[in-house]
Amino acid sequence: MGKGKLAKFADMEAFENVFQYPFSVIDNVPFEMKGRWRDMYFNNSNPIVLELGCGRGEYAVGLARKYPDINFIGVDIKGARMWTGARQALDEGLKNVAFLRTNIEIIDRFFDKDEVQQIWLTFSDPQMKHVRKRLTSTTFMTRYRRFMEDGGLVHVKTDSNFLYTYTRCMAEHNQLPIHVATADLYHTPGMDEQLLSIQTYYESMWMERGIDIKYICLGLPREGELSEPDVEIPMDEYRSYHREKRSPKETAK
Q1: Which pLDDT score is estimated for 57?
Q2: How far apart are CA 221 and CA 47, in angstroms?
Q3: How many whole angstroms separate alpha carbon 154 and alpha carbon 144?
Q4: β-pair partners for 98
Q5: The pTM of the whole model exceeds 0.85
Q6: Which comes out higher in pLDDT, residue 52 or 25?
Q7: Is 144 within 8 Å of 109 (Cβ atoms)?
Q8: How high is the pLDDT of residue 200?
Q9: The predicted structure's pLDDT at residue 253
Q10: What is the mean pLDDT of the chain?
Q11: For the residues of the chain, what is the DSSP string, one character each?
């Protein structure tokens, strides 16, 4: 690990807005705020919104600026990236945003029933070859149900046509309500300003390369068994996470 990363990890140990519970320690270190984020940290009764896979925290911090009456929590395992958003939130005095460094696979260990109202998934790895690792898979949707309010919203912004198509098929197959779905967010009339005004690092990068941004918002009712759709979806023309710098149009030349 580089010296820069070590320095950031040392910084975050003292950040009052960061809670670090990676998988390696959670079994031995109790998390006392489960079900009590509002009274133990935020000191209010406002709704809670998670950004899962928050990276540098651009979206969580951007939303916190715009919506002071909503509490936001950015979640990721990569602390060196998270440091950026956590530091910015502290410097700006934003009291309605926190960061949780942990594995998203155990996210239900940190929140209690009905504690979370919405989830944002911003430019997640599509995991084209591993369905159970997709953050919109029924495996993860089942986890989210354990702590989201009944009918809570899951927002997905992605450059990946594969992830967008899969998520839509999954929702339709399980009869989950789809409130909004567009394969070209920035050229769809009537989109909420919230969707357009905050851009993550990856979002800006893909737009510069000529890749359309997709968005889907679905409701997650608590009842009903979830199952995976039996569909074949074309793979993206670029790699899933460390993707090529060329756009699909350039690659085709």
Answers
A1: 93
A2: 17
A3: 9
A4: 73
A5: yes
A6: 52
A7: no
A8: 81
A9: 33
A10: 90
A11: --HHHHHHHHHHHH-TTEEE--HHHHTTS--TTTT-HIIIII-S---EEEEET-TT-HHHHHHHHH-TTSEEEEEES-HHHHHHHHHHHHHHT-TTEEEEES-GGGGGGS--TT-EEEEEEES----TT-GGGSTTSHHHHHHHHTTEEEEEEEEEEES-HHHHHHHHHHHHHTT--EEEEES-GGGSTT--HHHHH---HHHHHHHHTTPPPEEEEEEE-SSS---------PPPSS-SSS--SS-HHHHT-
Cα 205 from Cα 189, distance rounded (Å): 23
Widest CA span in the chain: 57
Percent of the chain with pLDDT over 70: 92
Specify the residue for token string 């460094």.
Answer: 101
**Residue 54 near residue 82 (C-beta atoms within 8 A):** yes
| pLDDT value for 138 | 98
Residues 59, 120 contacting (CB under 8 angstroms): yes
| Per-residue confidence (pLDDT) for residue 11, from 0 to 100 | 84
Is the pLDDT confidence value at 241 over 70?
Answer: no
Give residue 239's pLDDT: 54
- Report which of 238, 189, 235, 186 is spatially closest to residue 213, judged by C-alpha positions: 186
Hey, which residues are catalytic here?
125
Whether the per-residue pLDDT at 248 is higher than 80: the answer is no
Which position has the token pair 């005004």? 197
End-to-end Cα spacing for the chain: 39
Hey, what amino acid is at 96?
N
Q: Token digits for 99?
A: 């960061």
The CA radius of gyration of the chain, in Å to the nearest whole number, is 18
